[in-house]
């Protein structure tokens, strides 16, 4: 047995946990078999490395039909949770919470719907069960085709549906199973009646890798045992463990008089008391489903139980905190919002509009040396540039200390927001993130634009400096919003910078799919000529010395803007002629 396990394990280790195992030679792994009552022995081992448990591959390592590799060249298989649960029309709990929780944790989630509920923040107005046959059909569709790592159950409203699920689980004995024994909603409405208790106790719980009851569910499964203290939760966890699940997490969200949100985990050997700050909020509808789905998601990624539970609990706490003030319905129990953190970021940035190429008309690039020479702060310089007519600002502080740069950038952000002018950061993606800037401008030797896009997300502005049509094409492929082309004329703000001239600029504009801003030695005297090359995607000019190395920034910016407006007018006249 051990040697066949070893062979099976070796061939599946890489597939199981790409990140954590790919760097560990398979031979260095040792196994421990944990035979368990009523379960096939092969499901019950953990992987040890240097006598530490570094992962649990029990659900996948021995699946005969497992995909041969998780990362063979271009093919990457994502961790996959199948939720078998009820739909909540209000979107707060059930299938909807499971989908959101898995998505938020970066795990694929397929769904088998057991019941459709008419539900909102007031309560459950109606329940319609899906037929056993159709639950079976959904299970077959998913399991016959997709590689599922973990099954998570929520509302299982009838004995027949539990039996159908058990039948599928028997066919796939190596699937990990998280059982959230949903019985009553937060609003107090019954979702699964007492008739299911026997089949739960006798057949489903012994199959579970972890059982996650709340106080009421734990009490019901234990025949009405009172659970009022943390001590009672320990006892309940122990008694439920005796029913067969490998791990039991008794959740204390509803524990009376408790400052903390305490949960008790028992793995058959040790108890773990997990505490989080109790968030003061009514928006707790869906916490149980979310917690169980997150546990399933972490297990699918390869975490051992304890760290899966810890991460899941931290996620629920943080999500509750983010959503504590949202108002979704008029009832007493609102839902949590799994993505509020992301939405908050979007709101804070205040940038609800898409990038407008017209904002490139007068592009002001700051220079710390010039500001120092003229004895003015970067914030004052930026404000004057905008008041004079700059339509976009880039902070280019090559010699500033990072901390100072961030502080300056934050102040400039405030100024720019108050005028509705985008602020970009030169090179420094970290600074842009720290001050929530509108975007970043990178050169050819900085971080690749594609990576910048991955880090900053879809709605930030990314610009790339280009000297050739090829570079312009690359910038477009990489997801940039505009390109900066130059130096058009020689300049002393950039050393050893090859100039491309008006011809070079024109050649790039002709092939570029992105809007272009011209840069390099441009000022009052030549801005009109540059704009006159007649390229429709040449939106404007970027200037440094022409405004920042002058006594009155505001005045210089104003004059430049006039020249640019005139050039635009001329090109419109030419076009219509
Ligand atoms: N107000 C809260 N603040 C922080 N965590 C909470 C809060 N309410 C519940 N939790 C946590 O949410 C998870 C779900 O718990 P619980 O509400 O007891 O389950 P259910 O939603 O199934 O009734 C647990 O980890 C619990 O500790
Ligand atoms: C379809 C469905 N599944 C589960 C729950 C439990 O969630 P909660 O305990 O947060 O009300 C629910 N209300 N509805
Ligand atoms: Mg709850």
UniProtKB/TrEMBL annotation:
Pyridoxamine kinase/Phosphomethylpyrimidine kinase domain mapped to chain residues: 88-332
Biological process (GO), any one: thiamine biosynthetic process
Pathway involvement of the protein, from the record: Cofactor biosynthesis; thiamine diphosphate biosynthesis; thiamine phosphate from 4-amino-2-methyl-5-diphosphomethylpyrimidine and 4-methyl-5-(2-phosphoethyl)-thiazole: step 1/1; Cofactor biosynthesis; thiamine diphosphate biosynthesis; 4-amino-2-methyl-5-diphosphomethylpyrimidine from 5-amino-1-(5-phospho-D-ribosyl)imidazole: step 2/3
Cellular component, GO, one term: chloroplast
Entry keyword set: ATP-binding, Chloroplast, Kinase, Magnesium, Metal-binding, Multifunctional enzyme, Nucleotide-binding, Plastid, Thiamine biosynthesis, Transferase, Transit peptide
All residue ranges annotated as the Thiamine phosphate synthase/TenI domain in the record: 362-547
Family annotation (Gene3D superfamilies): 3.40.1190.20, Aldolase class I (3.20.20.70)
Pfam families membership: Phos_pyr_kin (PF08543), TMP-TENI (PF02581)
Chief localisation class: plastid
Signal peptide: none
Entries under PANTHER family matching the protein: HYDROXYMETHYLPYRIMIDINE_PHOSPHOMETHYLPYRIMIDINE KINASE THI20-RELATED, PHOSPHOMETHYLPYRIMIDINE KINASE
This protein's name: Thiamine-phosphate pyrophosphorylase
Source species: Trapa natans
